[in-house]
Every structure is written in C-alpha cells, then in structure tokens.
Amino acid sequence: MSNTIAFIGLGHMGKPMALNLLKAGHRLKVFDLNAEAMKELQAAGAQVGESAAQIAKEAQMVFTMLPAGRHVRQVYEGENGLLQAVAPGTVLVDCSTIDAQTSQDLATKAAKLGLLMLDAPVSGGTGGAIAGTLTFMVGGEDQALEKARPYLDAMGKNIFHAGKAGAGQVAKICNNMLLGILMAGTAEALALGVAHGLDPAVLSSIMARSSGRNWATELYNPWPGVMPDVPASRDYQGGFATGLMLKDLGLAADAAVSQNSATPLGELARNLFALHAAQGQNAGLDFSSILNLYRQRR
Ligand code: NAD
C-alpha cells in the first residue's frame, strides 16, 4: 500500500506544492483553516480533513506550509497538536520559513517521541511552487531526508542538506535577507533612472545584461508592465507578501543579534519594508511593491 501524505497549510505556496504531490500520483489528505483553500485540492483528488491532527494521524509523511513560527508551534504542539497526534516513525516536514530555534525545539521534542522531523524551507516563489522547481534547504537527520526525498522531488528541483535541525532555516534567512536587499536596491535604481526620463523596460534590459544583474532584473521585475507574468504587472497581487518579507528580515535581524553579527544592509532593508508595510494595504501586496516607496508620480 502506498504512503498517505498529509499536507497542512494551502496558501500561495502550499496549494501548488500539494497539487504537485497529487500530480506525481501520491495519496493526499489536506487541511487548512480556510475551507475555500481546500476546494481546489479536493477537486484535484485530495481528501479533505477536519483538523490537522485528524489527517496527520493516518499519514506516514506530514508536510506543513504555514505563515510564521507561532502558527507552526500551534499546529505542532498546541491543543490537538501534531506531535501528540501522529504515530511513531512518522516523518514531519515543515516547509514554512520560521526561526531556527523553533525548528530545533520541535525537532528535539519530535525525536523524544520517536518521530523524524525536518525543517525544509523553500525558495523559488509561487512560480517555482507551481512549476515544481522549488529549492529546498533542509535541516535534520540524513535518515529523515532520505524518506522525504521522493516527495520533495515532486515539488522541487534542488534539494540541499544544509546541516542539522534548524540549518535549513538559517540558510533560508540568509537567502531572504539578500533577496530583500536586492529587491529594494533594484527598485531604487529603476526609480532613479525613470526620474531621469529613462524607460523602465530599457533600463531593466540594460541592467539585466550588465553588472547590476540579479534575480529581480532577470525574473521578477518590480516595475509594472516590464515583465508579463510577475506580481508587479498584476497590481502586486499574489506572489510573496510584503508582510512575509518583513517577517523574514526580522528573523535575520534576530539571528544576527544572537551571534553578534553585523548585518547593516539587512537592517536597512527591514526598516524599508517596515515603513512600506505600515502604509495602507501594502503588507498584503507582493514584496516587489517596495518600488512604490521610491516611485515618483508626476
Ligand atoms: P499564505 O499566508 O498564503 O498561506 C498560509 C496558509 O496557512 C493559509 O492558507 C492559512 O489559512 C493557513 N494556516 C494558518 N494557520 C493554520 C493552522 N493553524 N492550520 C491550518 N492552516 C493554517 O503564506 P504563503 O505565501 O503560502 O507562505 C507560507 C510560508 O512559506 C511562509 O513561511 C513564507 O515565508 C514561506 N515562503 C513563501 C514564499 C512566497 O513566495 N509566497 C516563498 C518562499 C517561502
């Protein structure tokens, strides 16, 4: 009998990831607090559950894709939490981006209960989640990773074993701190050029083939209309929310403090995203909307 997989958290990222598990032929049970989020999965063949614990206790492998550390703690060790609900030997894979300490604490508690737990945050955005080309940054034991690998392969293209429990989160936080810095920098450069009368598409093509080239100029341009299939060209809807980027930059700041590391650009980016997120509905818009902090409207 093939394994049953439980997937909890069907938001911007979790839904396409779960759909890719279904497409690969896996038997899937899903749960999200938002019943709407489960409908598409149900239509695609997943079984819908009544709680995280209910679907997880019947599964051999459990994936979670939740917003922040407090949600992860609640789902794993809150009332009716996964740690108490699942059978010994179950592999728990948390793909959310959260603080490394929470991942380590949960992995330690899981091990005491005879469970295997990985932190496996992802990079690649909603585009990568839909295409099944995510990068997984994994922290935890080899044995757990080898059990999870066939399922990670169905959702991603690159799987990196960063180290022990929590190491995946550290790698992810470093990556996203750089992403926040490069997105703010790209928006700043584009706004400067446009203020001088340059066409943002022309300036973007120049920078994409020059030494200012980066992920934003190549794949995720923040200026509306420069690229067809990015959040900037659909009023910054979908994608990676400004509020989530602000959370990740806060995680990077906390991580820096804990090791007395200097991260001046990361802190500056955190402040820019905090100012941006505080205005109107910006926290829910894609993070490339940071451009609006710089853009001069004439
Ligand atoms: P999201 O807010 O779109 O989705 C989160 C989902 O979790 C929602 O559907 C919500 O209803 C559900 N949820 C919350 N609490 C729950 C609970 N107790 N039980 C069941 N479901 C619950 O967030 P997202 O954009 O999918 O991001 C998820 C994680 O992935 C975050 O940690 C984020 O930082 C990270 N991430 C996001 C992106 C991106 O581009 N969106 C890229 C890489 C990593």
From TrEMBL:
Keyword Oxidoreductase: yes
Occurrences of domain 6-phosphogluconate dehydrogenase NADP-binding (ranges): 4-163
Swiss-Prot/TrEMBL catalytic activity: 3-hydroxy-2-methylpropanoate + NAD(+) = 2-methyl-3-oxopropanoate + NADH + H(+)
Positions of transmembrane segments: none
Gene3D superfamilies linked: N-(1-d-carboxylethyl)-l-norvaline Dehydrogenase, domain 2 (1.10.1040.10), NAD(P)-binding Rossmann-like Domain (3.40.50.720)
The protein's Enzyme Commission number: 1.1.1.31
UniProt enzyme class: oxidoreductase
Family matches, as Pfam families: NAD_binding_11, NAD_binding_2
Domain of life: Bacteria
Annotated NCBIfam families: HIBADH
Family (UniProt): Belongs to the HIBADH-related family.
Protein name according to UniProt: 3-hydroxyisobutyrate dehydrogenase
Originating organism: Alcaligenes ammonioxydans
Gene: mmsB
